[in-house]
Amino acid sequence: MLELRNVSYSYAGVAAVRDVSLAIGEGQLVALAGPNGSGKSTLLKLIARVSAPRHGEVTFEDKPVGAWHAKEYARRVGYLPQDPDPAFPMRAIEVVVSGRAPYLGRFAWESDRDWEEASRALALCDATHLADRYLDEMSGGERKRVFLARVLAGTPRLILLDEPFAALDISHVQQFSALLRGVVDRTGCTVLFAAHDLNWAAAHSDRMLVMQSGALALDATPREVMRAEVMKAMFGFEAETVAIGGKTWVVPRT
Amino acid sequence: MTRALLILTTLLLIVLALAVTFGAVPLHWNDETARMILLRLRLPRVLLAAAIGASLAVAGVTFQTLLRNPLADPFILGVSGGAACGAAVATALRFNRIPGLVPIVAFAGALLATAAVFLLARRRDHTDPVRLLISGLVLNAFFSAVILISFALSPQNDLTAALKWMMGTLFGATWTSVLLVSVLLVIAMIVLAFVANDLRLLVFGEEDAKARGVDVERVKLIGFGAASIITGAAVAVSGIIGFVGLLVPHLIRLVWRRDFRMLLPLCALGGATLVVAADLVSRVVVRSTELPIGAFTAILGVPFFLSLLRRT
């Protein structure tokens, strides 16, 4: 469904993404891991059609991303930036229904169907009770859920999330990741999320893409990534691994 | 939401009726002179006040939405300053001997200022809102300097008119100016309505809007262009009437928290109401002279604004 061929991008002459090639199919839950500044956010923006690659090509459903009509693409690919913030006070339900924008005609207002999709998405994110609350009165975790609902309201086939677990406490991470898993299982869409925390990235994905200084250093299952040698080579620290209930966790050796 | 439109339309109609009825000369339908005053002076003035108020408020809400900044307005961005600068230079150069030339130069000043602010704020293929605001602030300082120098060089008897203009005045409103400002306002509002669905998504940030299929740079260009043209026209005919662009969108947002699509017509109605009311007060408060209308937009608007702010 998504394919990147030799994709590169640079900000003011500094390479942020270098020669990345990869392919992602339907129904996958993929983590994009790597240290801070390794190019995860930039890669997501290239896929989200926010920026265009300097070299190489991103294709979605066998069509180059640049050749897609912007609104058509936005209906299929939902993107949640790291810390979205409307400049003016808004209610949660208004934020969520704005996720329907790619479906609206030029002068159209949201139809009943759009409001229904928005309520359904809020319910899916366990946030129905937040519908009429203002965003600036919410906790970080509540906001995250509202913004995920906004992405889901657009019923995308590919969901791109930039650091969805940042600012969430441990119980909300569990809740949120279960929610992502549920969305993938139920709708068959693909989720690609960036996470700098390796343990969360590994615990909540089927496949891990590990970035290092802009390049794709590793494309493997969480089990293969979560090893002491990999930690040493990629993140530069000595680690112990602990296997609990079929999942492997890394702990820095002190 | 139709309720909001209804309330503001009613309010505007009431204020319009009051503004036409009251003035320095009492109205008598049977009196020839009074009728002339009504048709030639008062009616164009009241309608110009409405068109200018609507223009400034629409420009204000557009700038605020585009820049995601509640402080943005035509004055802070230097658009009004550019117009004032053009008018002051034109006066110093004795352009006022030719009727209609000073407003044209003022209009050109507004557009040049917008272009300058935009070019200064542009880096590579992207316009940075913070740089845009800073560029506006810096250009305003420059415009103030040019205005002061122009005033020092202007002939003594042109200064009163120039000063009046700086304080904002609707004195000397003509049907031509009413037509000019109204036509531009209507065109700008139609153009803005075309991109309203995209514009409202900009409040989440430009990258977010891009990911929702918005052609951000195009929408910004259209928005700034339309808002600058109506600001330029308003300032060119009436001088500097402050606070409307900043105050009205905030007032509307405090009462009806809605996105740009709804704010556009509501701000037009609210701005028109405020300036017509301010003009009425400025005409009738002191019998012998007219007080600066810009002062009354603030005097009427600020207490109302503060009381709303305290309640919410």
Describe this structure in words.
The complex is a heterodimer of chains A (254) and B (312). Chain A starts with a strand and ends with a strand. The model of chain A has no long low-confidence stretch (mean pLDDT 89). Chain A folds into 2 domains: 2-220, Rossmann fold; 221-254, no CATH class. In chain A, the strands form 3 sheets. Chain A has a 6-stranded mixed β-sheet, sandwiched between helices. In chain A, helix 4 (112-124) packs across helix 5. Chain A has 254 residues and is α/β, with parallel strands linked by helices. Chain A has helices at residues 40-47, 70-76, 92-97, 112-124, 140-153, 170-187, 198-203, 222-225, 228-235, and strands at 2-11, 14-24, 29-33, 55-60, 63-64, 77-80, 158-162, 190-194, 207-212, 215-220, 239-244, 247-252. Chain B has 312 residues and is an all-alpha fold. Chain B folds into 2 domains: 1-43 and 242-312, no CATH class; 67-240, Orthogonal Bundle (ABC transporter involved in vitamin B12 uptake, BtuC). Chain B is built from 12 helices and 2 strands. Chain B has helices at residues 2-21, 32-67, 79-92, 101-121, 129-153, 156-167, 175-199, 206-211, 216-238, 244-255, 260-284, 293-311, and strands at residues 122-123, 126-127. In chain B, strands 1-2 form a two-stranded antiparallel sheet. In chain B, a hairpin with a 2-residue loop joins strand 1 (122-123) and strand 2. Chain B is globular and about 65 Å long. The two termini of chain B are 19 Å apart. The relative contact order of chain B is 0.18. The model of chain B has no long low-confidence stretch (mean pLDDT 86). Chain A binds chain B through residues 45, 48-50, 69-75, 77-79, 81, 84-91, 94, 98-99, 101-102, 104, 106-109, 154, and chain B through 68-70, 193-194, 196-197, 200-201, 203-205, 207-208, 210-215, 253, 257, 259, 261.
